Amino acid sequence: MHRLPALAVLAAALTLSACDAVDSSADTLTDEDLDDAAVVVASALALDGGGVLEDAAAVASLAASVDAAGRSAGPDRPGCDNGLAFDEASSTWTVTIDCERTSPGGRFSSEFDRVSTYQFFDADGNAQRERADAASVNYDIVSGSTLFQSPRGTHALTSLGADLTATALDEDLVSVSGTYDRTGTDTLTTRRGERTVAYTLALALDDVQGPKTRVRSWRNAVGGTITGTLQSTITRTPADGETIVREVDRTFTVTFLEDGNERVAEIEIDRRRYRADVETGDIASIP
Questions:
Q1: 152 vs 188: CA distance, rounded Å
Q2: Please, which residues have CB within 8 angstroms of residue 277's CB and are 6 or more apart in sequence?
Q3: Is 214 exposed, middle or buried (0-12, 13-18, 19+ CB in 10 A)?
Q4: Residue of 185, 218, 162, 169 whose CA lies nearest to 65
Q5: What residues pair up with 264 in beta bridges, in sequence order?
Q6: Which of 73, 75, 72, 70 has its CA nearest to residue 132?
Q7: Residue 27 DSSP code
Q8: pLDDT at 136
Q9: Among 114, 204, 132, 130, CA closest to 170
Q10: Residues 221-258: pLDDT tens digits?
């Protein structure tokens, strides 16, 4: 008569025991883990380092016409060589770019390449060749690589894909939304030692806004929100200790705030907030 309740109690006890056996420490991140994660996200944003803001600014620049006929010269990427080809059958442009940049004083430098396609669309969703009278432009990144050198170390992008759409083409600030995925390895050196971060980033841009002309002024005018997920393996070699390997799998949010006459990217991970330079991705608060 009492056998079933006894079995139920035993099953509950086994369930609780199994739960207690699960090691949840891997999901508990230290401040140092979060600092490393923030550095990865910030470098992936950098306007001058081949980051997501660099690509968003290039998309927005397609809203600018170069002559009265509305012809586009392709994305505006300062310091880059562009190659353009047009496919009549699909009304699709293919652009290849090769860039090299060095900041004043040589503290930051970047080399990056992209293969992308884009199409202009009218208000009814029909593809067209030129910018004139277009209501939106779709921009896909087919492939890309980046080598970005900063005072913190080397940031190497190994794969890249994006599906972005720019709207409000006739406004002063163009709106860019879509998805952006990148994989890479960062080798960082700080006073606390060296660490290597192998990561995958999945980003979603929601009305990220900036000017269609003077791409460099995105540093002053960028707005909107970026959300994403970082999955990474951090191999940390302290200056005076044993190597530690940490797994970081976290969501984050990026918003853009005023800082004097410029904007900064505020990155929030696990309720911890960091402010990064929009242009370089540098986070001054991390030693």
A1: 5
A2: 42, 46, 264, 265, 283, 284
A3: middle
A4: 169
A5: 257, 277
A6: 70
A7: G
A8: 96
A9: 132
A10: 789 999 999 999 999 888 777 899 999 999 999 999 98
Q: One-letter amino acid identity for 287?
A: P
- How does pLDDT run across 185-204, given as a tens digit for each residue? 999 887 777 889 999 999 99
Helix (H) or strand (E) run with residue 105 in it: none
* C-alpha to C-alpha distance for 87 and 89, rounded to whole angstroms: 6
Q: Both tokens of residue 144?
A: 């890309």
Distance of alpha carbon 89 from alpha carbon 91, whole angstroms? 6
At 107, list the tokens: 């503290």
Residue 234 and residue 275: Cα distance in Å, rounded? Answer: 21
Q: Do residues 260 and 277 lie in contact, with contact meaning Cβ atoms separated by under 8 Å?
A: no
Query: Is the Cβ–Cβ distance between 207 and 58 less than 8 Å?
Result: no
Q: What is the pLDDT of residue 18?
A: 40
Strands 109-121 and 244-259: unpaired
Please provide the average confidence, as pLDDT, over all residues in the chain: 83
Does residue 74 contact residue 94 with C-beta atoms inside 8 Å? Answer: no
Q: What is the rounded CA–CA span in Å between residue 203 and residue 257?
A: 19
pTM over 0.90: no
Nearest to 17 by CA among 9, 28, 25, 29: 9
Q: 179 - beta bridge partners?
A: 163, 204
| Spatial CA neighbour of 49 closest among 150, 185, 183 | 150
Q: What is the pLDDT of residues 112-136, one digit of tens each?
A: 889 999 999 999 999 999 888 999 9
For the record, the structure tokens of 242 come out as 């044993």
pLDDT of residue 275: 94
Is 264 within 8 Å of 257 (Cβ atoms)?
yes
Sequence length of the chain is: 287
Residue 56 region, left (φ>0) first, then alpha (ψ -120 to 50), else beta? alpha
